[in-house]
Task: inverse folding
């Protein structure tokens, strides 16, 4: 078997560094693309939720309301 030699020159090192940097930059761009796509989806969902015709609330403000009779207990309220 013959001996194999690996020669490292400045051109080889520079080429490897450039390839690594390009790979890293492409990876970062792809991560940003995914992040922007997620942000856009969240913004669209939020926009649709804000523009609904009906909304729900945490508290039931009409709990004491009885259509024809009015609100229970209002008559006796004093300031």
Result:
């Amino acid at each position: 078997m013959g001996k194999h030699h690996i020669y490292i020159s400045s051109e080889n090192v520079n080429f490897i560094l450039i390839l690594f940097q390009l790979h890293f930059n492409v990876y970062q761009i792809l991560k940003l693309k995914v992040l922007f796509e997620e942000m856009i989806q969240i913004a669209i969902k939020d926009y649709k939720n804000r523009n609904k015709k009906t909304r729900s609330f945490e508290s039931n403000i009409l709990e004491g309301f009885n259509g024809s009779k009015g609100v229970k207990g209002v008559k006796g309220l004093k300031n």
The mean pLDDT is 77. Strands lie at 65-66, 70-71. Residues 29 and 37 are 12 Å apart (CA to CA).
